[in-house]
Amino acid sequence: MAYQALARSLRPKKFSNVVGQELVTRALINSVSHDRMHHSYLFTGGRGVGKTTLARLIAKALNCLKPEDGDCCGTCEQCLSIERGNHIDVIELDAASNRGVEEVQVLFDQIRYPPSMGRKKVVIIDEVHMLSIHAFNSMLKTLEEPPSHTVFILATTELSKLPKTIVSRCIKFNLQNIPRKKIENHLTQVLEANHVKPEEKAIELITKASGGSLRDALSLAEQAVAISGQNPVGRDMVSKMLGFVSEELLTELLVTVGEDNCSDAFEVVHKINESGASSARVLDQLASFFHEICKDRVLRNCNRSPDNNRFGSFAIDETQANLFYQICTLGKRDLHLAPDEFVGLEMTILRIFAFIPDKNGGTYLHDQNKTKETLKSQGKKELKTDLLSEELNQKKKK
Ligand SMILES: [Zn+2]
Questions:
Q1: How many Å lie between the centroid of ligand 1 and the Cα of residue 65?
Q2: How far is the CA of 17 from the centre of ligand 1 (A)?
Q3: How confident is the model at residue 126 (pLDDT cuts 50, 70, 90)?
């Protein structure tokens, strides 16, 4: 049998195998078992959270030969045919590549007649927001009153791009990102079932990088297994693969911030660049660190013991951690404006140093103002920018 990617070969065969989305699966199982299916559903949510998977499971549950309390069996002829993608009554349209009125009309021609193999015809339109406005308009009537043997399932990552007239004709389910712990447990089970031993930290990093998408997590895990070969999937390798920087280097950088040692910080940033880490990932990691430090300080102020003592030793207080967190997130947002990624990272680190209070309680920026005041009091000319603005003001007065 041809090799299939993990994310495809591990697609749940029944509602009960779906990871996360408990409320949605419960609602669907109840509707199927009480024969109360609506004629059109709309699944919204981020990529890889199970929209198409749930759509196909509905098709299975409605046509299964041996349904069990509203769930499909996953093994009968109908279920297997839907899984292989060759069931004649389950019609899938990828709206990203079939956007026009003609494609939608061809689809509607197919649903006029009763199902020939199963009990219901199921129409799945993926990335439905990509349809043209004329295609949407041509759908309205059929979507409101489709033939009784038909169920429509629309899926989209961009709900805001759908006309209100379409949304109001469907039962809408907003699929949530999969919780971190569930992705971690699932990845561990999958890898162990494939005789791969993963390090706990490696799984944590993959889960973090997946952003709540199970499909992304499985693809990344597969990539890590391919790189590891016969060896266990280790933290350092996964960290490198994902463009993260090692925690040791990150800690080194935070120590320089705590000590207000800008020249050492330059060296660490240089080492980070040499390690091949992506600037966006490093800023994400730094922001997470400052978030943890902030939490640690707040808990200590409330006389509650923090989750762990890792962050107790850094000489960074709550206000600073708060500010540095924002500097990192804004630095990441503006990375695309920087001449190159490394300059963007270095400037963000420099900005952090610019806001470290000096021993007198001021900051570098306050010091600049002090310098200006001293220069003025000594009757000396200030920075060129101030000269320019003075000249401009005088011209305006004239
Ligand atoms: Zn079945």
A1: 5
A2: 14
A3: very high
- pLDDT per residue as tens digits for the range 50-88: 999 999 999 999 999 999 989 999 999 999 999 999 999
Task: Give the pair of three-digit tokens for residue 139.
Answer: 């759908």
The two three-digit tokens of residue 302, written as one number: 């409330």
Ligand 1 centre distance from Cα of residue 63 (Å):
7
* Contact call for residues 199 and 233 (beta carbons, < 8 A): yes
| Each residue's pLDDT tens digit, 185-224 | 999 988 888 888 889 999 999 999 999 999 999 999 999 9
The pLDDT of residue 226 is above 50: yes
Distance from Cα 176 to the centre of ligand 1, integer Å: 27
CA 210, CA 375: separation in Å to the nearest integer?
Answer: 53
80 Cα–ligand 1 center, Å: 7
Closest Cα to residue 41, out of 172, 166, 211, 184?
172
What is d(CA 338, CA 348) in angstroms, rounded to the nearest whole number? Answer: 10
* CA distance linking residue 19 with residue 22, whole number of Å: 8
Residue 77 CA, ligand 1 centroid: distance in Å: 7
Q: Has the ipTM of the complex gone over 0.90?
A: yes
Query: What's the gap in Å between 67 CA and the centre of ligand 1?
Result: 6
Question: Mean pLDDT score of the chain, rounded to an integer?
Answer: 87
What is the Å distance from ligand 1's center to 2 Cα?
A: 24
Which domains does the chain show, CATH number per domain?
6-174 (3.40.50.300), 180-241 (1.10.8.60), 247-354 (1.20.272.10), 364-393 (no CATH)
